[in-house]
Recover the amino acids of this structure.
């Protein structure tokens, strides 16, 4: 007789997902108002149910194993469905309107994974979305024409913004542009950038000047698509992250100074609003999932 599948414990799944997203099961225990030992016991139970190790040590943090990464995707969906069912039977299906903005880099890469599941789980909530640069989104938040916005973390973000994660920045250029040869000849590095003010533009110029590398902006654009087109054409290099990077472009191998990391932040007017809370959770899951895979 075929053995029936084990029913995975939903509380253990919730602890597992939160522990991975926090990078620490001790932090997850704090958020769940449980003891660390209780959360550790849940993780051990889940590993026994799955018949495999789900996490492994990397430095001071626990990260998912191959099996853990597979379970992570299913766990998020199971938790979302569980929460939707719980609200439905209690007559608490979400209603209302939410206006969300996203920085251009996040539009194509993160938005489908956030707004698609949310719209399916909460058909009573009307979503309107806007993709733009940081400054216009910040202005829209100030004008209260947006309820929440996913942005690059700059010095001008309000103190109540919530850090979603950090991603490495990278120099990007076309294979046809030999940057090593440009640097060897002592020529100014050609840059493709957004118009100022721009966090990436400021970071690029700062690290190049600190390294004593001459630079010149050869192309400016109002949009990210314009930046990608100019880089693909070989006009120069740009500074972005892996988020939203087109498949036809890749990071440069040239020896350019490390541009460091940049934070991804969520800004909300009413974080206690149930619809915004759910959308915030999905955003956290999407950002965490992308950062783990990149």
């Amino acid at each position: 007789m075929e053995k029936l599948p084990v029913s995975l414990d939903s509380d253990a799944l919730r602890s597992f997902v939160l522990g991975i997203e926090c990078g620490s099961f001790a932090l997850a225990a704090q958020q769940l108002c449980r003891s660390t030992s209780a959360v550790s016991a849940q993780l051990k139970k889940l590993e026994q149910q799955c018949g495999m190790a789900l996490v492994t040590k990397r430095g001071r943090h626990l990260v998912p194993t191959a099996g853990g990464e597979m379970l992570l995707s299913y766990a998020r969906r199971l938790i979302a469905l569980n929460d939707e069912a719980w609200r439905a039977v209690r007559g608490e299906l979400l209603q209302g309107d939410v206006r969300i903005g996203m920085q251009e880099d996040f539009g194509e890469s993160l938005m489908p994974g956030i707004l698609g599941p949310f719209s399916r789980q909460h058909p009573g909530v009307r979503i309107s979305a806007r993709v733009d640069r940081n400054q216009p989104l910040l202005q829209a938040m100030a004008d209260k024409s947006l309820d929440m916005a996913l942005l690059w973390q700059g010095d001008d973000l309000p103190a109540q913004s919530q850090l979603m994660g950090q991603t490495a920045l990278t120099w990007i250029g076309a294979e046809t542009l030999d940057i090593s040869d440009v640097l060897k000849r002592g020529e100014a590095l050609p840059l493709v950038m957004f118009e100022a003010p721009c966090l990436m533009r400021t970071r690029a110029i700062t690290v190049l000047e600190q390294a004593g590398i001459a630079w010149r902006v050869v192309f400016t654009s109002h949009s990210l698509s314009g930046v990608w087109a100019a880089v693909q054409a070989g006009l120069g290099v740009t500074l972005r992250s892996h988020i939203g990077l087109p498949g036809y472009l890749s990071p440069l191998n040239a020896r350019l100074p490390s541009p460091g990391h940049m934070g991804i932040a969520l800004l909300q007017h009413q974080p206690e609003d149930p619809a915004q809370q759910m959308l915030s959770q999905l955003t956290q899951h999407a950002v965490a999932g992308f950062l783990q895979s990149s």
Summary: The first strand starts at residue 55 and ends at 58. The longest helix spans residues 66-89. The mean pLDDT is 84.
